[in-house]
Design a protein that fits this description.
The structure holds two protein chains of two kinds.
Chain A: E1 2-6, E2 9-13, H1 19-25, E3 50-53, E4 60-61, E5 72-74, H2 78-92, H3 109-117, E6 142-144, H4 154-163, E7 169-171, E8 178-180, H5 197-201, E9 207-209
Parallel strand pairs in A: 1-5
Antiparallel strand pairs in A: 1-2, 3-4, 3-5, 6-9, 7-8
Helix pairs in contact in A: 2-3
Chain B: H1 3-28, E1 33-38, H2 41-45, H3 48-61, E2 66-71, E3 83-86, E4 93-95, H4 100-112, E5 121-124, H5 138-141, H6 159-164, H7 169-175, H8 179-189, H9 201-209, E6 216-222, H10 231-238, H11 240-254, E7 256-263, H12 268-283, E8 299-304, H13 314-321, E9 345-349, H14 350-362, H15 364-368, E10 378-385, E11 391-396, H16 401-408, E12 418-423, E13 429-432, H17 442-447, E14 456-461, H18 466-480, H19 486-503, H20 511-525, H21 529-533, H22 536-544, H23 546-554, E15 568-571, H24 582-586, E16 592-594, E17 600-602, H25 612-616, E18 624-627
Classes of the chains: A alpha+beta, B alpha/beta.
């Protein structure tokens, strides 16, 4: 076991795990979207789990740092909050907000983070960006809603882990980046094992089981 | 290495050198004339192929004997195609802007009749009494060619020409030394990574050398992607063996047996020449198993890049070699800890690798003597834009921007004023006139808000609008963002949108501050170097040219008159000539009509502001005016019948 100090409170954690996991294990919440406990190399892509460690000059993502004995972590400095709010606002500026009609309502990670950061769901300083992406319908059993997706990549990771194959991947680049299930319109040949792990890890219900027939 | 194997190594290499010398004498021999034609991509694009054909035909017609030797790039893009004619009795003479016609003339007048045709001479490459030397020009005498020393002078497809110039002797020297000694030498030389960040190359090598894992890898990053930058391409096309030699020394020093050169897909000729060079080195035992009779093995392969700018970032580059989507990964672990296939990996830029043979050959102290204390050696820039002598320039670190732009590269053409210089590509920044006296080195440029980057330099004259420049670079990074992390994927798009609305005249109060704040967030929050540095063009243009932004936002005026929405053309009725129709035909939208007193006017409602009328108006009238904001253009109604 390793001892570290988080926000002036001493906590104990397993060795070899990330600072983010150590905090979550000790019921200290740090906003995060792309992280899953099973990841050996977290992608560090959502840019929300910033903390300051041992008075570091710049906040760093807690999912990419392993715990060390005697580490001093601060999860709520002004600089940390500034970056978290900025990243969160950017994510909201491409997320179609329609909570009432969204299957994720009340269990949505974005709602949780908004509450935690005391940040309204409608960005104030940024315009809403419109992306011209069509809803991907070529998968026999999965429905993808790009304008809800925040591209955390959890589905990409979990699909690879569960099936041993990469059947979900990122496609395109820049703001047009989407999640894609390639070449699966032909159901008999589809390699998807229909485990639906991707739908379960999605923090915002952007991947859904298509219809009752599939379950 | 013991005395015995050292002797064998020297013996093996001596026989290779003898062969190189034999071939050189055969080519140079008494009374042979040589024509060297610059045939890198730059030369080919300006017509070197046709020039070569013209030389061949003219020689054939006149029954003259001369060798035509295709060489690489000298760096003088403004004067391509370049040809060097080496005729016994004369110093080698450099000719500029050679056309097929000039080629035929040179064969007749110079090769046949002995008249060097002075009006087309750029200069002699050696001092002589008869012909002015190129060393009299600042473009030549203020450069310090270390990496580019043989570029444009040897045939890149002939390994023996490189060896004859002393090539591969640094590798031979290295092989007689302990690997640690070489790493120490590189550390002492102060060589810093030429890819942009400026990390000490020797330290990087040491980290990999110290790794427990014995299977180590060298990667040479030739995924050059900055707009307007082509240093690496020119080097790969002009002197590929220099790079191979540097890679071999690096591999020996860190204990690697595999090396990969990651060449941008858009550089087909560079990739081809590199592969050809690797084949030749292998053939004579400079690569492969038991190099030059030692027990050092090395395989070098060319990997064709995957067509994404972000793959120049080292972790994305590694992902892409592994067959994955080119997305940067969080560091640590650094490639030196866990790189390609999880093995300790050195990733070095082309120019860093190419600096290694001269350092090992001449010693660390010699290299330290070039440049400044904290940035030793030379810097290679591709200087482009509004500049008279555009091209590749290799200068010692510490030369000021002013010297580089105004002396070495000849200044700004068309009597225009200097406005800004953009250094370091999309990650760099724009520096104004007041920054011209800062020395070119890693730390000074970073302090000024730009960065060394990989060597792209765009010079801009007074006609450049800085909002437009920032918009251009953000458009680039936003499109090239890999889409992985929040700040880069979405943040750069917001920056671009705000810049676009400012350029359209729809800027709002607070937009400039929003640009600054968002830029700082993206810089602090992004995952990789591409994202972190993407706001630099915005931050530096706001810092140094804030008044221009304010004019756009507050007065809806573009001071450089570049932003189309904020400008208008009109015809000055006092100077317009009755009866002249020059502008009417030039207008693509038929927006020019005849006024009641038979002069011309522009219908603002259909004008697309292309500026054709301004070019078409005869200079003696010079009646077309451009104004910003557009309200300054007088309104003239189109007569009902016209």
């Amino acid at each position: 076991m390793v001892k570290l100090v988080v926000d002036n409170k001493e906590i104990e954690s397993e060795e070899g795990i990330t600072v983010l996991q150590a905090c979550l294990d000790n019921e200290i919440y740090i906003p995060n979207l792309c992280y899953l406990k099973e990841m050996d190399n977290p992608p560090g892509s959502c840019r929300l789990c910033f903390v300051e460690i041992d008075g570091s000059r710049q906040p760093i993502t807690s999912c990419t740092v392993k715990v060390k004995e005697g580490m001093v972590v601060k999860t709520n400095t002004d600089h940390v909050r500034r970056l978290q709010r900025a990243a969160f606002e950017l994510l909201l500026s491409v997320h179609h907000i329609d909570c009432r009609n969204c299957p994720a309502n009340r269990k949505c990670e974005l709602q949780r983070i908004a509450k935690f950061l005391k940040f309204g769901l409608k960005p104030k300083r940024l315009e809403q960006l419109e992306r011209e992406v069509k809803t991907e319908q070529d998968h026999p059993c999965l429905e993808y809603v790009p304008n809800r997706c925040i591209l955390c990549g959890r589905c990409v990771f979990v699909c690879r882990k569960e099936s041993g194959q990469a059947m979900i991947s990122f496609a395109k680049r820049g703001l047009d980046t989407v999640i894609s299930f390639f070449g699966e319109e032909d159901k008999p040949r589809a390699t998807c094992k229909e485990c639906y792990a991707c739908t379960r890890v999605c923090p915002v219900s952007a991947i859904l089981v298509k219809n009752s027939h599939c379950q | 290495m013991n005395q015995n194997s050292r002797g064998k190594l020297n013996q093996v290499f001596a026989s290779i050198k003898t062969e190189a010398e034999r071939r050189f004498q055969e080519m140079k021999g008494h009374n042979t004339q040589n024509i060297f034609i610059g045939m890198a991509t730059c030369g080919l694009a300006s017509g070197a192929m046709e020039v070569k054909a013209a030389f061949e035909q003219a020689l054939l017609e006149r029954k003259l004997n001369a060798h035509i030797i295709p060489v690489g790039c000298l760096g003088h893009c403004y004067a391509e195609p370049l040809v060097i004619v080496d005729k016994p009795g004369f110093p080698p003479i450099l000719y500029h802007d050679v056309t097929p016609g000039k080629a035929r003339l040179l064969v007749k007048a110079f090769l046949e009749e002995g008249d060097p045709v002075f009006e087309h001479v750029l200069g002699a490459l050696e001092e002589s009494d008869t012909i002015p030397s190129v060393l009299e020009f600042p473009r030549f005498n203020q450069e310090k060619k270390v990496v580019m020393a043989n570029s444009g002078l040897i045939d890149p497809e002939d390994i023996y020409q490189y060896i004859q110039k002393g090539g591969y002797s640094a590798l031979v020297k290295a092989l007689t030394l302990e690997p640690e000694k070489i790493i120490k030498e590189i550390q002492e030389s102060g060589l810093r990574g030429r890819g942009g960040a400026g990390f000490l190359t020797g330290i990087k090598w040491q980290l990999v050398r110290n790794a427990k894992e014995k299977d180590r890898i060298i990667i040479c990053n030739a995924d050059e992607g900055d707009p307007g930058a082509y240093m690496d391409r020119a080097l790969l096309e002009s002197n590929p063996h220099l790079l191979i030699e540097g890679i071999a020394i690096a591999a020996y020093a860190v204990g690697a047996e595999t090396a990969i050169i990651y060449v941008r897909a858009e550089y087909p000729l560079a990739g081809k020449r590199m592969k050809n060079a690797i084949g030749q080195s292998r053939q004579i035992g400079l690569l492969g198993k038991g190099i030059l009779g030692t027990d050092f093995d090395l395989d070098v392969a060319v990997f064709q890049g995957s067509g994404a700018f972000v793959c120049g970032e080292e972790t994305a580059l590694i992902e892409s070699i592994q067959g994955k989507r080119g997305m940067p990964q969080p560091r640590p672990p650094y490639p030196s800890q866990r790189g390609l296939w999880g093995k300790p990996t050195v990733v070095n830029n082309v120019k860093s690798m190419a600096s290694v043979p001269p350092i090992v050959g001449n010693g660390a102290q010699w290299y330290r003597g070039i440049g400044t204390e904290k940035s030793s050696g030379t810097a290679i820039f591709s200087v482009v834009g509004n500049i008279i002598h555009a091209g590749l320039v290799e200068i010692p670190m510490g030369v000021t921007l002013r010297t580089l732009i105004f002396e070495i590269c000849g200044g700004i053409p068309n009597q225009k004023k200097f406005k800004a210089v953009q250094i370091g590509g999309p990650s760099g920044g724009c520096l104004p006139e007041s920054s011209l006296d800062i020395p070119i080195d890693f730390d000074s440029l970073t302090e000024a808000g730009a960065m060394m980057g990989s060597g792209g330099m765009v010079v801009m004259d007074e006609d450049a609008c800085m909002v437009d420049v920032a918009r251009y670079f953000l458009d680039f990074t936003q499109k090239e963002s890999c889409g992985k992390c929040t700040f880069c994927r979405i943040g750069t798009k917001h920056l671009l949108d705000i810049l676009e609305r400012i350029a359209r005249g729809e800027g709002r109060n607070g937009d400039i501050e929003l640009l600054e704040n968002l830029s700082l967030d993206i810089n602090g929050g992004s995952l990789c170097g591409l994202g972190k540095t993407a706001p630099n063009p915005v931050l530096t243009t706001v810092k140094y040219f804030r008044d221009e932004y304010e004019a756009h936002v507050r007065e809806k005026r573009c001071p450089a008159m570049m932003c189309r929405a904020l400008t208008a053309y009109y015809i000055d009725l006092d100077t317009c000539s009755r009866g002249c129709d020059a502008c009417v035909g030039s207008c693509p939208t038929e927006s020019i009509f005849t006024t009641k007193n038979r002069k011309k006017a522009i219908d603002q409602s259909s004008c697309v502001k292309c500026g054709e009328c301004m070019s078409a108006c005869p200079p003696e009238y010079d009646a077309v005016r451009k104004v910003s904001p557009p309200e300054l253009a007088p309104k003239i109604e189109r007569p009902e019948d016209g």
